[in-house]
Amino acid sequence: MKLLITDDNIHELRLLRTGIDWKRLGIGRVFTAYHAKGAQEILKEEEIDILICDVEMPETTGIELLSWLRSEKYVVETILMTDRVTYSCARMAVKLDAFDYLLKPVDTAELERELQKLIGKIKLKKQDEEKKTYSYYWTENQMLVKELFWKNVCLERIPNQPEEIEKKARSVNVSVDKDSRCKLVLITIRNLDELFQTWGEDLCQAAIQNLAQGIVKDNSDVSQVIVIYTRVLIILNESEFETFPEKCEILALKCEEMLKAKILCYISKPIFCDDISETYRMLLKYSKDDVLGQNTIIQVEHQKNKAAKEEILLPTQWSELLYAGHIDMLLTKVRHFLTSLAHSDNLNEMNFRIFQQDMLQMFFTYMEKKELMAHELYENHEIYKSYKTAILSIDGMCHWIQKCVDFILQRTGGSALTGSEQLVQLVKQHITADLRDEVSRKEIAARLNMNPDYINRLFKHETGMTMKEYTIHKRIQKAQTLLRTTGLTVSEVALNVGYDNFSYFIKLFKKQTGQTPGQYKKVE
């Protein structure tokens, strides 16, 4: 501790300074000042714990110095000394919270007794402050410990057995009754991409977590609101089972009103602690497959049917709409297509991801035609962010598609293909649909209801090749791929691309590549 003695009577000051064993009292350093101005300078420089001050000093009195101390918010305990006690001085001393008021000349034994009392008071005060500080950090730490415990239970980082969970809970001071039931409530955000752009990922999750904590009335060790990766999870106490669906409605309204967040709440059936990890995985899978997201509250009694979904094939008309520049119609058809699949329970997370990759392939094909590189689409920050969240909902997927199309059209000057370009594109699609069976120009013309000679002339004008030459070109390209990536023999490759005359196949292959198929296969 540090102590300051202030007195304009130098003799009395020195008697006090030397007449007391300060170290025995626990005072590490003693400072002295002969006037209030000198005391103020020391108080500004040093963290003084105790001030012993004369009341009657020239220019600035001890009462005025004490008043200055309080106005400047210095935490210093004070003992005043005076030649005479007056009512006004005593009243001001009490008002300014002076510890004691001693008559001069001060008896050192009496001063020591008062100092011992004062030092005891200071120590108790510091202990209380430390307790409050430690209590705050302990409380904060306990909240984090509890959240981490429940997160570990959900992710099965703790052995999935009642006794093991209860044992681990005791070790971190969390109360768990292995024979009591709970429910899990998984909260997901439908408009995640939009929300992250406005709030940022961490802030958004924290805000929803805080709102959910306010909704959970019984904030015991069982009812917990935690964040696992990108989702908020409530582990609900049995006492709140009946009332919580209604509270979910309130939570959804608050999230939309305060955060503009459209949330979905997936509520499990009652479970015991050893079922938590499996139930969490089930809810997570269920929410990912629920791309339609029609209901705010979903009571999940069991896992969705795990039967294999039908393969999703993009309608060929979509690429035609893209090439023709009919973007609004394309998006309308995409939304209707996906919604129909979801209603028929034929759209899950895996199929949705495959659908997204097929859409990417369609975009890349268009970009290649327009001499754009695929990486340009990935390098756009906004498109990449929406790409990651697109599979969460049909709205998210349509939002991503809209961004991709807008970017591509902007990079190409917003121009769609001309009529002749569209026709050539359709011809190419018919030719490459199955290269094993050659489609004649007459057959293609009949499908398109056009004159075969006109189509052939137009095709050569646009591509520099006749339809026959283009067919050979694509067949040899496919043969190269098969030779490079499979273990097929040369004769098997020839049959695969539509040639049963192997000599003719070898002749065409060498003409286009400069090598025989056998030489090409060896080099690869």
Structural overview:
With 524 residues, the chain is an alpha/beta fold. The protein folds into 4 domains: 2-125, Rossmann fold (3-Layer(aba) Sandwich); 155-300, Reverse transcriptase/Diguanylate cyclase domain (Alpha-Beta Plaits, 2-Layer Sandwich), CATH 3.30.70; 316-357 and 375-406, no CATH class; 420-523, Arc Repressor Mutant, subunit A, CATH 1.10.10. The protein has helices at 10-19, 22-25, 36-45, 62-71, 87-95, 108-154, 162-171, 192-199, 201-215, 244-259, 276-289, 316-324, 327-343, 349-369, 375-378, 381-389, 394-411, 419-432, 441-448, 452-463, 467-485, 490-496, 502-513, 517-523; strands spanning 2-6, 29-33, 50-54, 77-82, 100-103, 182-189, 224-228, 231-237, 263-268, 297-300. Strands 2-1-3-4-5 form a 5-stranded parallel beta sheet, sandwiched between helices. The protein has a 5-stranded mixed beta sheet with strand order 7-8-6-9-10, sandwiched between helices.
Can you give the helix content as a percent range?
55-70%
Distance between the first and last residues' Cα = 84 Å
Q: Radius of gyration from the CA trace? A: 41 Å
Number of helices in the DSSP assignment:
24
Shape: elongated
Biggest sheet architecture:
5 strands, parallel
